[in-house]
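The record is kept unedited without comment:

——
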Amino acid sequence: MTALEDSATQLATDLGLELASPLPARSNQAWRARSRGDELVLRCHHDLLEIGGTQLGRGLSWQAEVRELANAAGWPTPRPRRAPFRHAGRWWTLEEFLPGRSRRTSAAERARLLADWHATTFPRERLGPCPGAPDRLAILTAADAAEVLGRCADPEDRRWLLRRLEQAAARAEDIDWSASRTVVVHGDLTDWNLLWTGDRLTGLLDLELATVDRRVADLVLTWRCRHDDLLMALDRIDPLTADEWRMLLVDWWAQLLTLAAFHLRRGRQPDRWELDGLRRESPLSRLLVRGERPGHAG
């Protein structure tokens, strides 16, 4: 048993929980638990963005409030059973377990979910961005951006990093950033975060990337320069503005450049996820690179 598993076992005993089984998770460790007939999830959260314990706790409290608000608005988000808390030097949460299974959704299904999520009324001004959420466009104007990205050891990867930085910074100057409305961004509305019972959505999971930002920030994180059909389906339901089409590549490249710089500033090399993403192309991205958008030349 690892030290973390030992902590989870001791914590479960203290809380009167029976740990049933570990659950799959990427940015935290989770266990299915039971208490007096209730099915729950106990999670231990990792500080992946290295923002510090205080800021991580504030972010978890923000996420818990958004889950409560979303649940009240009719979304099947897991409601917290208690506020985020510290145990053995780590942050933990306890939430309800939601039924259902993930499945492959069509572009039209996911586009409808995105449009409905963005249409949900949240107190955005009061919430503000999630504490600790990075400003992913800041890399484009950072004075040391080229120097930091130039620390990449592989010459070809370094060339792509600097090329995308130059392209994104140049394109950003011609965009009206107010043309994308402010929403609560889910941040990872993908198939593995959707649970279904038959045709009914019974679980909307993982708000760890959620924040208040431009709608395009959410579209980029679901498009990923790969799922063109999703954006085309969304455009038919909730059309993108001309400037939002221009934002897509800039936001995508800035997201990956930000991740690469995060590692390089700490003496680590970037992951293949961001390096390969910077090189990735799709039919839509090739259209956008030419300054065009679907259905419009030039």
In short: The mean pLDDT is 95. The radius of gyration is 20 Å. The beta strands are 18-23, 28-35, 38-45, 80-87, 90-96, 182-185, 194-197, 200-204, 211-214.
